[in-house]
Please model this.
Amino acid sequence: MNPVWRWFHQLGSPPYFYRFATRWMPWFGISALLLTVIGMYLGFVEAPADYLQGDSFRIMYIHVPAAWMSMFIYGVMALNGAIALIWRIKLSELLFLSCAPIGAMFTAITLITGMFWGKPTWGAYWVWDARLTSELVLLFLYFGVIGLASAYDDLRQGARAAAVLALVGVVNVPIIHFSVKWWNTLHQGETVRIMGKSSIDSSMLWPLLIMALATKLYFVFALLLRTRSALAEQERGKQWVREAMVEAA
Amino acid sequence: MLQAESLTCLRDEEALFAPIDIDLPPGHLLVLEGRNGAGKTTLLRALLGLHPLTAKSLHFRGTDVLRERHALCSGALWLGHLLALKGDLTVRENLRYNLAIGDEDAAEDVDELCANLGIAGYEDTPTRSLSAGQRKRAALARLAASRRPLWLLDEPFANLDGPGMAVVERLLATHLARGGSAMLTSHGVLPITLPATTVRLEHAR
Amino acid sequence: MLQAESLTCLRDEEALFAPIDIDLPPGHLLVLEGRNGAGKTTLLRALLGLHPLTAKSLHFRGTDVLRERHALCSGALWLGHLLALKGDLTVRENLRYNLAIGDEDAAEDVDELCANLGIAGYEDTPTRSLSAGQRKRAALARLAASRRPLWLLDEPFANLDGPGMAVVERLLATHLARGGSAMLTSHGVLPITLPATTVRLEHAR
Amino acid sequence: MTALRPYQALLARDLRLAFRRRADLLLPLGFAVLVVLLFGIALGGTPERLAPVSAPVIWVTVLLAGFLSLDGLFRPDVDDGTLDQWLAGPTSIVGLMYAKALAHWLLYGVGLTLSTPLLAMLLNLPVDLLPVMLAALAIGTLGATQIGIIAAALTARLRRSGILLALIVMPLYLPLLIFGSGAVDAVRLGESPKGALLLLAAQTVLLLTLAPPAAAAALRIGSDNPP
Amino acid sequence: MTALRPYQALLARDLRLAFRRRADLLLPLGFAVLVVLLFGIALGGTPERLAPVSAPVIWVTVLLAGFLSLDGLFRPDVDDGTLDQWLAGPTSIVGLMYAKALAHWLLYGVGLTLSTPLLAMLLNLPVDLLPVMLAALAIGTLGATQIGIIAAALTARLRRSGILLALIVMPLYLPLLIFGSGAVDAVRLGESPKGALLLLAAQTVLLLTLAPPAAAAALRIGSDNPP
Ligand code: HEM
Ligand SMILES: Nc1ncnc2c1ncn2[C@@H]1O[C@H](COP(=O)(O)OP(=O)(O)OP(=O)(O)O)[C@@H](O)[C@H]1O
Ligand SMILES: Nc1ncnc2c1ncn2[C@@H]1O[C@H](COP(=O)(O)OP(=O)(O)OP(=O)(O)O)[C@@H](O)[C@H]1O
Ligand SMILES: [Mg+2]
Ligand SMILES: [Mg+2]
Model:
């Protein structure tokens, strides 16, 4: 077997994943924290004030990375959902379930920071513009996934039911991203580009990219943390969990 | 018809009863026994893929059911605690629908089926307005039309009166004579005289 | 306890069965017989006012039930085909609620009731996750706590296994010995040995 | 207070059934936010366009969310034989109806009223209208519960009654809606909302005395016991 | 066409069950009229105030009326054991889902679309907007049925799922609503509704291919048979 595949197969086994998560979790956590501190400092102290918006633009350093994460996590969640549905891998079910609350949190942060940013720029906390609405829909999709999963008595059945919903909801993600292009909206158009030139000054761009990396690392940290404890909870009767507990104590 | 080795059902990942072996040749009747909550209903459902089960081997007419979970679904007719009758529809409409959805012989005469089951005259009554025993008979009428080789019947005698039980016995006898097999659950003394093998479900430990 | 003359039930304004006479003194057991659809269930419901009935006279402990329809409701405990259990609540919660709403003795110990009925260990299981027979036992646990003089039981033995039937028999025996009476419907051979009068419901014409 | 024991038991059971699935308690709020969202987007969404219709939209949303819970009020009790047991038992059905109504209002009326500030924000309702809105909703939902309990009792034995239920309930909701939005409108126009609120309260009191007995009578229909 | 026999039988059964209570067929219309009336009254009722919001109100009303019917889509089949028989039988569940969806659309989508002129009249919708409204609704309700069938399948085995159902359905309805009212708005602004209608149709086609298999997979959850 190809070594990459073998690694994936190993990772799918609960004891291996548990050990993997225990070993790597702290690293992700610590580097996320460090990068956040650096990004915050650069963004909130070093970067120059915007000539139009003054200091309120600094909300961007939270708003934009959170917005990216809200969509990214949905993608990761849907992918795990698909794996859980097709191959019925227990670990993917747990990963899927662990994604939802983290994603919901980033979505909520996006909405809240956006609302506080909207008051000075648009004069209202909320407008029914396409991007804002589709982001709110994303929050409800996360809630739907969490609600549906917890409505089932059986954890695994709940996970699979929620996975169907998550997959159906995937269409919303491109809608969020392209909404500024498809409809003329109040919301900012595409500013940061991976290909081509970004329409933002690099002194403002760097802290943003650092924060984006920090949130990614935090996501991996939170995902490992949640999945690890869910795994221990689900397999609590098993031999390897007892061994791991003894080891930890 | 149905062979199983070390078969047991799982609830919350635990075996529900001590593993059993089943060997049910064509033309034979198997009775599942066990106290309330032993797992009889769960076993029938598990065979049809409605519950998880484990077994060393499980074969239905030569097909490995553990590999092809669907094999039993088209070869077995199952009647559970719930009768799957629509109260708003008449006996005739319910039967027609049940035969069509189960892909049974379309030519069957519903009046004859009802007469067989002793509910002649109720063909055009909504099943909501039937007594418990009459409703059971309406559900059992599917058996008389079925050409599927294996019958899985969960407490087929519950709610039936004496003549009703005799009707079910007659249906079973015809089915077995045709080379079909049946597996049924029942409590106490079996109210029929057909020869049968008994399998008892015992506590897992 | 219960006396009736020329009693019959009405469905669509027609008598369901030939009028019967009932004389059920305290301490006695009465078994209602009749084919499927004879009207047994309807009769029990009609006594409680859930269906129309006619009778020359109908008395419960001296009260004329035809005048005071409500008299039987506080003196009789009825268990029908439907068990009135909430699947989302545990056996304990269901029982507590049932005792309170029926204004039965509040002091009863639920654990003891469950042990009596052979479902010890399931007190804190939601009734949704019980087997058919276990659910029946949970419903029957009300009997063990009840101080009402008349029991009306519709097929109390359905779905129960041998030991379960024995439990019901014991409950009935205690109840009768205390001067209570009971009326029950059943099919085929009665699986108990208590002495009983039988009333058979026959076609109205 | 042993005389109250059966009614307490029913109240406790209904609350317990609701709390058994904790998520359900937040769901009416979720529904309300969603309907508001549908309207927000459908109406085009600029604050100027939304503000004048926000109070009525909130009222309709709250009534709809409460309405959706009605189907579950008696249907499960009919299906599992609980209702027959009530009718065949010694306990007063009117008393049971009061317990049912109280449980329903506690679960839906109170919860929805408390969630109004959020809905108001989403719809750009002027902040000074919020207090009168809250007062009107607290009274109005109590009345709406009573209407609901009659309608649910009338349709309890019918299959698929969802829309019939709507047909019965909506016209009865109208007076509540009129005085309820009336009170808010009054404040917007700088008048006193007292008159409208008093009329709303009077209706609710009337409903409180009439509805549970009416619901009890409705449940008895189809059974032979006189009410 | 014996291969289609099971699916025809299910379609016929669902239609027959609906027609058994003829009044039920008129009830969605009754509900829609009532919601429109509630809004009419809550919004104050002058034609000038109503006309601009009439199209969105009609859309929301139609979606709500369809939504209310979803709880009855699989619940009865779960309760009486019909669903278990499907899962234990030889017939393709995906095929059964197509039959279910078709029956639901015929009963609700078509009926509600045909009743739109009445709703439009009540809300003073400009007459020249009616044709595009009808076209958009006919397409949109077909899509909405598909969304509904997934959500109903996901919640079929849950108790008291009403509001969870709403939480699942409403966000998925939004794109339909956006393009649906978008088409009407386009005509009002003198533009061509073609783009919006095409996007609406594209969504519906996508849903038609995805939803029945997704619903079948959802129903299989809890059973051990792979989808
Ligand atoms: C509640 C209100 C808001 C919500 C829900 C929201 C949502 C989002 C989302 C989902 C994204 C990511 C889009 C993507 O990458 O495809 C985003 C990006 C962004 N948002 Fe907001 N936003 C809100 C308010 C605001 C406000 C008021 C501003 C400032 C005027 C703003 C400025 C930005 C910027 C500059 C980006 C980065 C755009 C890019 O590079 O693609 N947002 N927002
Ligand atoms: N809801 C109803 N509406 C109309 N007729 C009914 C209804 N329920 C039962 N019947 C009819 O009334 C008659 C008596 O029914 P009942 O349920 O009392 O019979 P039973 O003696 O209890 O039968 P079983 O042994 O099958 O339980 C039957 O012929 C039945 O068809
Ligand atoms: N839905 C469920 N969820 C969890 N556990 C269940 C569920 N249904 C049944 N059980 C449990 O599984 C066991 C077996 O139940 P099953 O219904 O198979 O018993 P049975 O042999 O058919 O009993 P009976 O004779 O009472 O019908 C029981 O102990 C029961 O408590
Ligand atoms: Mg069983
Ligand atoms: Mg009966």
Summary: Chain D touches chain E through 46 residues (CB under 8 Å).
